[in-house]
Structure formats: C-alpha cells, structure tokens
Amino acid sequence: VKLNGGNGAQAYNLDMYQRVQQRVLLEQDLKQALQLNQFSISFQPQMTIATGALYGFEALIRWRHPVRGMVPPDEFIPVLEQSRQIVPLGYWIIEQCMQQCLSLLHSGWHHFRIAINLSAEQFVDPDLIPTLKRLLDKYELQGSYFELELTERTLVQSIETMLTIMPQIKAMGIHFAIDDFGTGYSSLSYLKKMPMDCIKIDKSFLSGMLENAADFQIIASTIAMVQKLQLQVVAEGVETREQLELLRQQGCDIAQGYLIARPVPQAELAGFLEEHFPK
Ligand code: C2E
Ligand code: CA
Ligand code: CA
Ligand code: CA
C-alpha cells in the first residue's frame, strides 16, 4: 500500500504504525497458540568433541503460525517475555523436555543432558522451584538430566535472587549454563559467585574465528579460563570442519551447530539418534 507521497516523516510514522499493529496481532495470536497446539520443540544435539559421542541436546521452541508459517523464536520470545506469557509457556517447555527425557531413557539412551533456555521472568517466578520439584517427582527423573541456560542479561538483573534460587535448584541435581557468553555484561565475578557448570561461547565469535584474530583469541582464552575453573565449555554455531578442528586443538569440550546437527523436531528425534548416534 502506498499511502504517502514520499514524505519521510509520514513514511516513518506509517512504518511505526504497522509495526505496532503487527505486534498487537502477534500478541493476540500468541495468546491462543499454546491452547491451539501451535508450539513444538526441536532438540539440537551437542557432541563431545574428543570422542564424537552424543553429549546432550538444547531444547528450542518452535511456533507454527496458521498463516505466517514458522515464526522464529527471536521474533516472538521477546513479546512473550514482555507480557509474561513466557512463564506458563516456559513450564510447558520444561514438562515437554521431561517427557522427552523419559522417552529417551525408555529407548535405552542414558548418557545425555537436556538444556532448557530460561527467560529472566521465569527464573524469578516463585513457582519455578516447586514446579521443577513437582515435575521431577511426577516423571521420577533425576535433575541431573537437565541444564538451565541463563543469559548474562538474566544474571545481572537479579543477582541477589539468583544467589538464593540457584543453590536450591542445584540441590535437585540440575545444572546451570551461561548462554551467549561474551555478548552481555560479561563479568568474571559471576563465574566465581555462582554455581555454574557450563559456559556456552556465543556463535557470533565462532562465525569470525577463522578470519578474525580477535574472535579467535576470545574463544581460545575463554576455553582456557573455563577449564581452569573446571567448568564445561560448549561452542555454539559450529558450522565447518575447520572450526571444529580449531576448537579441538584449543581443548573445547562440546560442540553444537549445523555441522553436527540442525535442531531435530521432537517426533523425529528417536529416529535421528538411531541413525547418527547409535548406542
Ligand atoms: P540461543 O539460545 O542462543 O539458541 C541457539 C540458536 O542458534 C538457535 O536459534 C539455533 O537454532 C541456532 N543455531 C544452532 N546451530 C547453529 C549454527 O551452526 N549456525 C547458526 N547460524 N545458528 C545455529 P533459534 O532456535 O532460532 O533460537 C533463537 C533464540 O531464541 C535462542 O537463542 C534463545 O535465545 C531463544 N529461544 C529458543 N527457544 C527458546 C525457549 O524454549 N525458551 C526461551 N526462553 N528462549 C528460547
Ligand atoms: Ca540457548
Ligand atoms: Ca546461545
Ligand atoms: Ca541467543
């Protein structure tokens, strides 16, 4: 639609208007999406670099909009976070992951870990700890099959809460990872204060590591530091053999990325594993 004669300000306003309208529509559609069964979860395999064995998975939400098709999480997660709808959806995600865990155990896989992304809103929700306990109980699962991924943004927002919540979750055996490491307000003091198990190097560093000396140095020194702290280190966004080889040389533990596998829809996971990571 052409509604203005090249007036810049008007074009801008119209654009703004359309974006606001789009967002309102998105918000409305999101309200029913869970009830209408439009969400699903894909699981992206992670590989132990030294052995080539399966290490675990990251659970990634997918939304199939009836008209727009697949909507990327970067588009709708922030909307859900603002309206706090991420909290109930987050519990649904956690329960799906527990069911998937149970199903993997029943099919004979025992050595894996499922990493779940946790938004800040959910991390400070008072129901988080009771819900985790209730669900682990319900499915009779050990917490050690799960890892919660927090971003540096979440960590700075609520450092006090964090220090009371984290130990209680750790007591259930659940692990913690810092996601997108290096992109936020990276403070090494978190690593000392918080009971972290794992650091995930952000994929933006990976994409530059072969050409850009600075990116490579950041990766190399992160790996070295994380190992001195005796934490696990995952490199995300591994797309080429060269990247994987360099990561191996630097002593990185775990790789995740399209080279290893794309995120696999839940219904296809068992078949995928039989084929690519036989027991
Ligand atoms: P993230 O947590 O950093 O997740 C990793 C993203 O990198 C995923 O995008 C994944 O599909 C993508 N990826 C994996 N390997 C490669 C690779 O080799 N190259 C490239 N270019 N990308 C790769 P996705 O699934 O689109 O998710 C985007 C973001 O949305 C996630 O970033 C996370 O912040 C958020 N998100 C996804 N699922 C959930 C969820 O269940 N809960 C919450 N709270 N946030 C989620
Ligand atoms: Ca993540
Ligand atoms: Ca990440
Ligand atoms: Ca991210």
Characterise this structure.
- The chain has helices at residues 8-33, 73-82, 86-106, 120-123, 128-138, 152-157, 159-170, 188-193, 203-208, 213-228, 241-250, 269-276, and strands at residues 39-48, 54-65, 69-71, 114-117, 146-151, 175-181, 198-201, 232-236, 254-256, 264-265.
- Helix 3 (86-106) packs parallel to helix 5.
- The longest helix has 26 residues, at 8-33.
- The chain is 49% helix and 20% strand.
- The protein is built from 12 helices and 10 strands.
- It has an 8-stranded mixed beta barrel.
- The radius of gyration is 20 Å and the shape is globular.
- The model has no long low-confidence stretch (mean pLDDT 91).
- The protein starts with 7 loop residues before the first helix and ends with a helix.
- It is α/β, with parallel strands linked by helices and 279 residues long.
- Ligand C2E binds next to strand 2, helix 2 and strand 6.
- Residues 23-277 form the EAL domain.
- This is cyclic-guanylate-specific phosphodiesterase.
Key descriptive features of the protein:
single chain; 279 residues; 12 helices; 20% strand; globular; binds ligand C2E; binds calcium ion
Termini Cα gap: 57 Å
**Low-pLDDT runs:** none
Spell out the helices and strands N to C: HEEEHHEHHEHHEHEHHEHEEH
| Widest sheet, order of strands | 1-2-4-5-6-7-8-9
Give the rounded overall mean pLDDT: 91
Helix content: 40-55%
How is the main sheet built? 8 strands, mixed, barrel
Structural class: alpha/beta
- Radius of gyration (Å): 20 Å
Tell me the fraction of residues in β-strands, as a range: 15-25%
**Discrete helix count:** 12
Shape: globular
Number of strands: 10
Ligand inventory reads: ligand C2E, calcium ion
Protein name: cyclic-guanylate-specific phosphodiesterase
Organism: Rheinheimera mesophila
